């Protein structure tokens, strides 16, 4: 029997496994995916949001706790547990030396990476390199890892973990960490959560899954049925507007189109529906998936002109290109007169001051609804480009309620040997919204806490048994 069983194979799970092993516990990791797809959504990440009070290696200037907290408070609209959020923020300032010890390397942010050089530390080689580094370290530390091993249920005894079931196999351990993600790749659960809208559409049918295909939410549903305390709205998620041509699963970060704040967004009816210049893109990019999900047909179109080219990371797919607005709208399948009028109204409303995409500039619209509050300048310079976008779900926020010790709760009472980390509990911090890199901050903080606590619980169990 292992001391600690870790269910999942992404960043949070690996942080838990490594911390538990460092604390002297024997560890088994059960990853549902094949080896080549290991790592869950972590393989698609590229950075970690970090608090720091002064410049630190790849991070410039300072990003103090209060600013990080205010950024999080703004994007969540207050739907966050401040105690747990501040725990994550403080942990983000001290985790990188430990990450380096386990083979993770960092690099300065690249040109065009959303002004994150002050707030986010980038992984050299991206999330796949981070995942591989952790697996190498786990192997060196004699952590046992099994692939193609989805856990579908747990055996519990009055809140205590006893065993996990992987198909017909029963696997005992002295403590357990659940870190196997949300339910974003479970289409039926997404349909159930989102339901049918007033237009008779099932919005979830048009969602693309930006993250892993293996997060089916089977164990999350099981825990709900077992009476575990739950937190979060099932419709809330890290939901990004991504290229409509992206694959159904595992498109990752390259499917995102980062030009929204440089142009306008119109829906299928060729009408604008939200302020494209509300705030810096890293703070607001993850609201656009949900906004698009609420539009007819769950599709929208990002429209820019040649002035925007070179100011954002080039997407993996080229945009539809045209020499006139009328030609562009026709190529996108939009009503030409409506589109041309929308664009003309926007252009006429622009009040251009000193355009600067690196600050909240004074270029805005007047007399237009919805307004564009920053970076508003007429879209007049050919060629023109359009990108069809659909909602891309990265991970869902419905999860297990926890505390500062990462314990799973039942009826308000914590388990003493069952813990949770990562996306499976991110809803405690992210009730809604997102800001770049914070998912990795949450997974790293709570993965490390859960691993440490699980090892302590397991070894205490061993000591009691010996006594």
Present the secondary structure layout:
Elements: E1 2-7, H1 11-22, E2 27-30, E3 47-49, H2 65-76, H3 82-91, H4 96-101, E4 106-107, E5 120-123, H5 126-140, E6 144-146, E7 153-157, E8 160-166, E9 169-178, H6 187-194, E10 208-209, H7 218-225, E11 230-231, E12 237-243, E13 264-267, H8 281-284, H9 288-293, E14 300-305, E15 320-322, H10 325-332, H11 336-349, E16 350-351, E17 364-365, E18 384-396, E19 399-400, E20 407-410, E21 413-420, H12 438-466
Parallel strand pairs: 1-2, 1-9, 2-6, 9-21, 10-18
Antiparallel strand pairs: 3-5, 4-5, 7-8, 8-9, 11-19, 12-18, 13-14, 14-18, 15-18, 16-17, 20-21
Any idea what the CATH architecture of the largest domain is? 3-Layer(bba) Sandwich
* DSSP helical segment count: 12
Whole-angstrom Rg: 23 Å
Residue ranges: pLDDT <50 for 5 or more in a row? none
**What is the CATH homology-level superfamily of the largest domain?**
FAD/NAD(P)-binding domain
Biggest β-sheet: count, sense, barrel? 8 strands, mixed
CATH class call of the largest domain = Alpha Beta
Strand content: 15-25%
Overall average pLDDT: 95
The count of domains is: 2
Task: Quickly give the structural class.
Answer: alpha+beta
Count of DSSP strands: 21
| Shape by Cα distribution | elongated
Helicity range of the residues?
A: 25-40%
What gap, in angstroms, lies between the N and C termini? Answer: 18 Å
At the third CATH level, what is the topology name of the largest domain?
Answer: FAD/NAD(P)-binding domain
């Amino acid at each position: 029997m292992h001391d600690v069983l870790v269910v999942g194979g992404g960043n949070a799970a690996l942080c838990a496994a490594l911390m538990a092993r460092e604390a002297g516990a024997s560890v088994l990791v059960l990853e549902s995916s094949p080896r080549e797809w290991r790592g869950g959504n972590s393989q698609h990440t590229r950075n970690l949001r970090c608090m720091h009070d002064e410049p630190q290696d790849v991070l410039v200037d300072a990003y103090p706790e209060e600013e990080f907290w205010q950024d999080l408070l703004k994007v969540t609209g207050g739907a966050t547990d401040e105690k747990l959020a501040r725990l994550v923020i403080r942990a983000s300032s001290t985790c990188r030396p430990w990450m380096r010890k386990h083979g993770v390397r960092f690099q300065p942010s690249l040109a065009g990476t959303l002004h994150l050089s002050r707030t986010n530390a980038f992984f050299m080689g991206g999330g796949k390199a981070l995942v591989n580094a952790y697996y190498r370290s786990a192997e060196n530390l004699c952590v046992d890892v099994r692939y193609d091993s989805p856990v579908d249920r747990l055996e519990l005894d009055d809140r205590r973990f006893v065993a996990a079931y992987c198909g017909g196999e029963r696997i005992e351990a002295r403590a357990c960490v659940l870190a196997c993600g949300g339910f974003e790749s479970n289409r039926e659960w997404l349909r159930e959560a989102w339901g049918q809208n007033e237009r008779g559409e099932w919005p979830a049918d048009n969602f693309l899954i930006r993250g892993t295909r293996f997060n089916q939410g089977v164990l999350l549903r099981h825990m709900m049925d077992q009476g575990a305390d739950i937190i979060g709205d099932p419709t809330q998620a890290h939901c990004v507007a991504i290229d409509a041509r992206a694959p159904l699963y595992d498109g990752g970060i390259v499917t995102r189109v980062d030009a929204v704040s440089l142009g306008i967004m119109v829906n299928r009816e060729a009408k604008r529906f939200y302020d494209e210049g509300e705030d810096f893109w890293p703070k607001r990019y993850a609201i656009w998936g949900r906004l698009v999900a609420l539009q007819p047909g769950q599709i929208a179109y990002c429209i820019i002109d040649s002035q925007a080219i070179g100011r954002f990371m080039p997407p993996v797919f080229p945009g539809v290109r045209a020499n006139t607005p009328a030609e562009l709208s026709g190529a996108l399948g939009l009503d030409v007169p409506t589109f041309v009028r929308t664009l003309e109204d926007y252009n006429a409303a622009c009040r251009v001051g000193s355009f600067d995409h690196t600050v909240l500039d004074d270029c805005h619209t007047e007399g237009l609804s919805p307004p564009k509050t920053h970076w508003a300048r007429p879209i007049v310079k050919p060629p023109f480009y359009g990108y069809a976008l659909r909602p891309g779900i990265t991970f869902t926020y419905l999860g297990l309620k926890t505390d500062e010790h990462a314990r799973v709760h039942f009826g308000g009472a914590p388990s003493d040997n069952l813990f949770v980390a990562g996306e499976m509990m991110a809803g405690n911090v992210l009730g809604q919204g997102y800001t770049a890199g914070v998912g990795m901050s949450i997974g790293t903080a709570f993965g490390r806490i859960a691993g440490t606590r699980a090892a302590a619980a397991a070894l205490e169990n061993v000591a009691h048994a010996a006594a």
